[in-house]
């Protein structure tokens, strides 16, 4: 994935950060690198952000982000060296926005 001031390009396609008039359009993308999953996301307003990873049985594997963040684009990295391989799911919750997606972790 690569993000610029106007868009993020990644495995999940292209997503607008600037929806017009300077407003941030919420989005998430993730990609698995060698031993690390990189999450890129944008939130429209300052507030509490929680980014969690779950296994196929719904058990929480990691809580990657759990803090108040400013509006705009963010990047979070999660080490998968000691984590399970295979299909996992991640959930991003922010003010007025919730996204749930899957990611495949291979090593």
Question: How does this structure look, described?
Answer:
This protein has 107 residues and is mostly beta strands. It is 0% helix and 64% strand. The protein contains no helices and ten strands. A four-stranded antiparallel β-sheet has the order 7-6-9-10, with no helix packed on it. A three-stranded antiparallel β-sheet has the order 1-2-3, with no helix packed on it. Strands 4-5-8 form a three-stranded antiparallel β-sheet, with no helix packed on it. A hairpin with a 2-residue loop joins strand 9 (86-94) and strand 10. The model is unreliable at 1-24 (pLDDT under 50).
List key phrases describing it:
10 strands; single chain; 107 residues; disordered N terminus; mainly beta; three-stranded antiparallel sheet
How many beta-strand elements?
A: 10
For the largest beta-sheet, the strand count, sense and barrel status come to: 4 strands, antiparallel
The end-to-end distance, rounded to whole angstroms, is 18 Å
Q: Kindly name the structural category.
A: mainly beta
In short:
The chain has 107 residues and is mostly beta strands. Helices cover 0% and strands 64% of the residues.
Please describe the topology of this protein.
Blueprint: E1 2-3, E2 7-10, E3 13-16, E4 27-33, E5 36-43, E6 47-54, E7 60-69, E8 72-79, E9 86-94, E10 97-105
Antiparallel strand pairs: 1-2, 2-3, 4-5, 5-8, 6-7, 6-9, 9-10
